[in-house]
Amino acid sequence: MAAVNLPLKEFIEQEEREIDKLVAGSQLIQTQLGPIEINYRDSNKVPISNIQAKSRAPTLLMIHGGMGGQDQAVMLFEPFFGLGCNLLAISRPGYGNTPLLENKTAEQQADLIAALLDVLALDAVVVIGLSAAGPSLYQLAIRHPSRVKALIAINCISMKYQLRKSAPIISQIVFSEPFTWVLNNLLKLAPKTATSLLLRTNSLLNKEQIQAEAAQITATTDKFKYIIRLCRSILNYDNSRKTGVENDIEQGHYLNPLHLEQIICPALIIHATADAVVLFYDSVYSAAKIPHAEHLWIEGGSHFSFWLNNNAPAIQQRAKEFLLACLK
Q: How confident is the model over 228-265, as pLDDT tens digits?
């Protein structure tokens, strides 16, 4: 893991330029069930503009979490570039340029994604999702089993979700434009403080643990760049994310435990045990219900441990190996 050697301002600006390249070039695709925004790239990060061209490469479908969009998916799932597969990021209904319309429920969103695969002439994909992507990800595998080769679920919701019970009080202010603006500006002025605040909103760690982890994260480029990306991915909340977040919360409140026993594809369930946003038992349930599911528990990790944990490289490598094995 490389140390942050560049001056902070220069490092952040360099990373923001890389982010701009990654998130540019999204397309709004019309399907039989409504429009959906995508960011479609090959293994080398080159945008795929001709969506009608049949590619021989397999596809990894990336579904973002709360406060996200296709931009969040591309930024956070960058470790999966360079593996020989195309990467397809989407904005779920209510996020980015995908209107909510009638696609509110997880079932409706799963059907919309399947309709997108029809337009793109993709028979089947491997699907990876984070957090609030869980219901849509799982329903896609349940309702359209022939379209899902395998799934990777990272800290994903699988049962009734209640924000007030699932997160510290401070998390309730996160869903606001002022918070995202303050966090992004604080990142440039006091990165360790901003990182601590982000960890405080999404983990059950104590104050000392948070401070120690924040110091370690801000000292290494491989981790600190994902703090920059997480902060960037929640910007423009009112214009690009609010409708989707509010729908996720409403749908999650009425979500019954999913019939995960109906999933027939290989599954890797990853969850951090100190996650305060989506509690650990959601994935314990998923791993127990999905036949032959593999699991990877991150001891004492936060909601974003897949990127920020001390063992993040090994955790990501496990996910990559699972993906490649499923593509053979």
A: 999 888 877 878 898 999 999 999 989 988 999 999 99
Answer whether 0.90 is exceeded by the pTM: yes
**Tokens in use for 296?**
């990877």
Q: Edge-to-edge, what's the strand order for the sheet holding 148-154? A: 27-31, 34-41, 86-91, 59-63, 125-130, 148-154, 267-272, 294-298
The answer to whether residue 233 is domain-embedded is no
78-129 tens-digit pLDDT: 999 999 999 999 999 999 999 999 999 999 999 999 999 999 999 999 999 9
The structural domain count of the chain equals: 1
CATH code at 314? 3.40.50.1820
Q: For strands 86-91 and 294-298, give the pairing.
A: unpaired
**Contact between 4 and 221 (Cβ < 8 Å):** yes
* Burial class of residue 323 in the structure, from the number of CB atoms within 10 Å of its CB (0-12 exposed, 13-18 middle, 19+ buried): buried
Q: Are 96 and 128 in contact (CB under 8 A)?
A: no
User: Does the residue 133 lie in any domain?
Assistant: yes
Contact criterion met (CB below 8 Å) for 167 and 198: no
Cβ count near 267 (within 10 Å): 27
Residue 207 lies in a domain: no
Q: Which of 89, 158, 83, 81 is nearest to 128 (CA)?
A: 89
In a domain, 30, yes or no: yes
Q: For residue 22, which of 81, 65, 64 has the smallest C-alpha distance? A: 81
Residue 128 pairs with which residues in a beta bridge? 62, 152
- The two tokens of residue 292 are 């032959």
Closest CA to 63 of 54, 81, 76, 50: 76
The structure tokens listed for 155 are 């800290």
Please state, in angstroms and rounded to a whole number, the distance separating the CA atoms of residues 216 and 208: 13
User: What DSSP designation does 119 have?
Assistant: H
Q: Determine the structural domain holding residue 296 and report its residue range.
A: 22-166+255-327
